[in-house]
Amino acid sequence: MKRIKVLGICVIAVLLSISVAKATGSTQIWIPSTDIQAFKSVHLGIDNYIRTQKDANGVYGSGMYDLGLTTGISPFSKVQAEIGIDYLNMGDNNILDAKNYDLHPIYFNGKIAIPEDSLFKGAPAIAVGAYNFGTKASLTNYNIVYGLLAKTIPFIGRISAGYYTGNKALLVDELGKASNSGLLLSWDRAVPEISDKLWLAIDYQGGKNYLGALNFGLSWAFSKNVSVIFAYDIYNNKNAFYNSSNVNANSFTTQLDINF
Fold first, then answer.
1. Could you tell me the residue range of the domain that residue 205 belongs to?
2. Which of 17, 29, 59, 69 registers the highest number of CB atoms within 10 A of its CB?
């Protein structure tokens, strides 16, 4: 989801190499999770979404890119917190359009969470947070807030469930009707039976807006601090898109996660 000098070099290098949609803190594949970055740790995430279906013009649409930094800010073990900032590129090529999303690429997020067993033995993890708080009113201020519960069940894995809501003027279906809320669901599990480096997940975000999707994939940890998610995204509403000239085509995502 680091030494300051190294972090600065990494950020500069990435900004120069990609045109960096979704700006969250610690996530599963697509939806937020109840996980939190440790106090004073910094997480660098580089997410790439490649369209696997053709758009309305018969070509593969622009990919989406997200470069994010998240840091843990709570020194307490039972009440944890993180804040983050993302640089997003949604593939909006209308560079002269005043409503170009990519002219306002900065988004903010934050989360507070209580880990499992903190309230009492057997208690679920609890998280409340916010993401996609953009800087341009009526354009990028999606202002999504959410709540989540998560519980790890032996042998089965972790089950998470929650709900989100956001700006009803921006989170809409293909007809422009508000579709600004929905369920958040996920299952994830480490698979030590195969390898301690392997993790599997499925998650779902409800709603007929462009964020609604079913996602499934895996993560491989190349080291203690570096892992990559490989996943596929199936969007709920192919006709709901932030740019009405396109379609919400399914995508393949790679998500590089580096913890400092």
1. 4-259
2. 29
Q: What is the CATH number of the domain that holds 219?
A: 2.40.160.40
Q: What is the pLDDT of residue 14?
A: 35
Dihedral of the CA atoms 142, 131, 98, 178 (nearest 10)?
-20
Select from 232, 224, 253 the least CA-distant residue to 50.
Answer: 253
pLDDT averaged over consecutive 10-residue blocks of the chain (260 residues)? 38 34 75 95 94 76 87 96 93 58 91 97 97 93 97 97 97 93 97 96 96 96 95 91 67 94
DSSP annotation string for 83-139: EEEEEEE-----TT-TT-GGGS-EEEEEEEEE-TTSSSTTPPEEEEEEEEEESSTTT
